[in-house]
Structure formats: C-alpha cells, structure tokens
Amino acid sequence: MDSYAIIGAVSILGACLCMGIGSIGSALGEGQAAAAALTAMAQQPDEAGRIRSTMFVTLAMLETTALYALLIAFLTLYANPFWNYAVNQ
Amino acid sequence: MECRTDFSQWFDLPWQDKPLGLESFDSIMLVDCGNYGINVTIFNSWLVIALITLVSWLVTRRISTGKNVSKMQIILETLVIWMQKEAKETSGSGSQKYFSMALGLFCFIVTANLLTFIPWFRPPTASLSTTMALALIVFMAIPYFSIKNAGIKGYLKKFIEPVPLLLPMNIFSEVFSVFAMGLRLFGNMLSGVMFAGILSAFIPFIAPLTMQTLGLLTGSIQAYIFALLALVYTSSVKKEEETSIT
Predict the structure, then answer these.
(1) Would you list which residues of chain B are within 8 Å, Cβ to Cβ, of chain A?
(2) Which of A60, A68, A75 sits opposite B22 (nearest CB)?
(3) Is 60 exceeded by the pLDDT of residue B237?
(4) Contact A56 B21 (CB under 8 A)
(5) pTM for the whole thing?
(6) Chain A (42-71) residues lying within 8 Å, Cβ to Cβ, of chain B
(7) Residue B173 CA, distance from chain mean position
(8) Long-range CB pairs of B49-52, under 8 A, 24+ apart, other chains included
(9) Region of poorest pLDDT, from A3-7, B93-97, B137-141, B220-224
C-alpha cells in the first residue's frame, strides 16, 4: 500500500472511532441532566421556566464534549496535515 | 493593485461544486486582491450587521408610547426586557453594564444563525474566525468588567483562590473557558451546515428541510447560551460586599 492510502484509511477509521466513542459520555451525561431537570420540573412546576433555561445551558455545555470529537473528526477528514504531505511526496 | 470581484459566487449553493472542508467558507473570495480580499464570511457578517442596524434604526426612528405601538417595537422591547431579566438573574445587581454587550452578541449570533433559512446564505458563525473574534470580545471584556467592579487587586485575587497553588489551573481555565465558547458555536453551526449539505447530496428534496429546521432551533439556543455564558464570565468577579450578601 502507498503511504497516502494508509493515511486515508487510518483517517477515516480514526474519525469514525473518534465520533463513536466521543459521543458516548456526552449522550449519557445529557440524558442524566435532562432526567434530573424533568424530575425537578415535576416536583416544582412553579420553577419550571428557570429550570428549563438552566437545563438548556447545561445540555449545550455537555454537548461540547461531543462537539470536540466532531471537530477532531472533521480535522482528520478534511484538514489532515499528513494527507497533503503524503500527496506532495 | 488590481482587484477581481466576483459576486456570483455568493449565489452558489453551499456544497454544490466546492469540496467539503473546514476552510471552505473562508476560501470563497468575493473580492480578491491577491494577499487580501473580502471573503463570504466577512461579507455575510457585514450583511448581518447592516440588517440589525437597519431594523433597529427603522424601529427606533418612530418610537412611541401609549396604545399606538408598532409590532416591531413590541418585539424589540420584549427582546431588551428579556435580556435585562436574564442579566439580572445571572449577575445580580448592577447588571445594566453587562447586558448591552450580551444583547449585542445575542442579536448578531441569532441573526446570523437564523438567516440560514435563505438557501444561499452561509452563516458567518460557521467559520472559526468569526466565532473566535466573538470569543475574543468576551475575553477582553472579562478583565475590563472585573477591574471595574473590584479593582486590579480583586481581579488578580481570583487567580489565587482558593489556594495559590492553583494559579496555573486558574489561568488555563480562564483562557480555555472562553476558547471553548468560540469552539462550541463554531462546531454547532458547522455541523448543522455540513449535515444539511451531506443530506442534500443523498436526498435532495424534503429531508434536508427537517435538519435545517432543527438547525434554526440549535442556532437560537446557541446564541442564547453564548450570551448567557458571556454574562456569567464577565460578572464572575464582583465587590466583596456583593458576593457576601448573595
């Protein structure tokens, strides 16, 4: 195999693994946060508005971890520095 | 110096002929003068700024009280009052000085994100340069408001709390929390645009519409979060008396 074939294959595999493993923790965390917020909303319906807005912020912050994985996946797929190096060689 | 202008590129649909990539919005040059020029990101953010300015000017030109209030004035008043309430909830007393910055950030981001319902519009927030510039504004605003609130001593004291041993960690978290704000907005918008683009390559008719509708929701929530985090970070250092009461 040529070097750029190996780099391409590893990049795609790496991007898939990065997305798959990286989103597990964020998904579990978001589920727990949403469940806790729903419980709190059911117990205190008066405070539902504030809890909801706090929940949205928390969810977006938890999502950040998965987004970092997404950015790394994009980076390996579209802006891979080793790819250009191998092609130019 | 000769400049080449080509505004027809603005009307290329995203991902039609251009390759998918991280830098692709920044690499579409509308005005190309060799080393420098105007790319789509800059042009679209100018469009957003012009739109916000125009709407605000048109509405506040004929501002009125009583019963004959125009619809747009009610919308803008609701926006301002809502952001004032948010600022008060997150930063307590003296929230008036933070709120204008947060509202400005919110208006820019939400307009940029919601204008994606125009098919040719590439949101400027889907470029890392724009989001990092916005994050840099917040990064500059944190020491400004902190020193204004508590003086230089109070601001620097934040870094050696709770123990001086944590100084490097505090500096790191100060830089990275703002850096993460920019990355979060960029990642959300880029993933929305890319997902719609990839989906429209497979199923060009109805399916991308649902994802773009979801993108509008994500865009407005992200704008809200950006403004809220800017409020939280800028108002993190307060006077001693204020923090002891609350």
Answers:
(1) 20-23, 89, 180, 183-184, 186-188, 190-191, 194, 221-222, 224-225, 228-229
(2) A75
(3) yes
(4) no
(5) 0.84
(6) 50, 56-57, 60-61, 63-64, 67-68, 70-71
(7) 21
(8) B49/B108, B51/B111, B51/B115, B52/B107, B52/B108, B52/B111
(9) B93-97
Of A50, A60, A68, the CB nearest to B221: A60
Whether residue B225 and residue A75 make contact (CB cut-off 8 A), yes or no, is no
Domains of chain A (ranges plus CATH)?
3-80 (1.20.20.10)
Q: Which helix (H) or strand (E) holds B39?
A: strand B36-39
Tokens 């400005």: give the residue: B104
Distance CA B156, CA A43 (A): 41
pLDDT less than 50: residues of chain A: none
Using a CB-CB distance cutoff of 8 angstroms, which residues of chain B are in contact with residue A74? Answer: 22, 190, 194
Among candidates B215, B227, B241, which has minimal Cα distance to B115?
B215
**Among all chains, which residue has been given the structure tokens 């797929």?**
A77
The yes-or-no verdict on residue B222 having pLDDT over 50 is yes
